[in-house]
Amino acid sequence: MLLAHQIQVLGTRPLVVFDVETTGLSAAKGERVIEIGAVRVVEGQLEERFSSLVATSRPIGVGAQGVHGISAAMLKDQPEAEEVFFAFRDFIGVDLLVAHNAHFDIGFLAAEFARLGQRLTNSHYCTLKLSRLSYPDLRSHKLEILGRYLFGELPGVRHHRALDDAELAAQVLLRILQDNGGVSSV
């Protein structure tokens, strides 16, 4: 019943599927967003995109850099957080937000907005939770594994880069909606 309600909501409204890459694992400990990527989904179609690296003075943790490959040198001359997150606020408007493991991404986004004196009030959904409800027999629901399960090989996708992961999460969401009767085509 919960899945059916979520499918109904997600299948009828414009939404923004997004992903962030960060300096570390904890927004509460001051780690920062260093890349954000998003795609707007309207009536089952991937529409506008938003993507930016974000300059920060916060060091990038070795473990984090090992995951996403973003270095301090790559952030040199990139826009500051204020510019990126005010632009992202304009991009998302009041649309629903969706992320894979949304607790992580929403936590970081809310922390960045709070630094700017803004509140993140958009409702959000999680493709990780939806995938666990839709495909309970899968051993892992990591985005890359889920993508391969649903679509086969994923050539050209740079995993753990924000825009590529946002686009893959959007495709996963559309497939979940389709598999549960929420959209007629992907």
**CATH level 1 name:** Alpha Beta
> Structural class of the helix and strand makeup?
alpha/beta
Mean of residue pLDDT values = 93
Strand arrangement across the biggest beta sheet: 3-2-1-4-5
What name does CATH use for the topology?
A: Nucleotidyltransferase, domain 5
Number of strands: 5
> How many helices in DSSP terms?
8
Instruction: Name the quaternary structure.
Output: single chain
CATH superfamily: Ribonuclease H-like superfamily/Ribonuclease H
Through-space gap between termini: 23 Å
SSE pattern? HEEEHHHEHEHHH
Q: Could you estimate the helical fraction of the residues in percent?
A: 40-55%
Entry keywords:
alpha/beta, Nucleotidyltransferase, domain 5, five-stranded mixed sheet, 186 residues
Structure, described:
With 186 residues, the protein is of the alpha/beta class. The protein is built from eight helices and five strands; from the N terminus they run H-E-E-E-H-H-H-E-H-E-H-H-H. Strands 3-2-1-4-5 form a five-stranded mixed beta sheet, with helices on both faces. Helix 6 (127-134) packs parallel to helix 8 (162-179). It is globular and about 45 Å long. The model has no long low-confidence stretch (mean pLDDT 93).
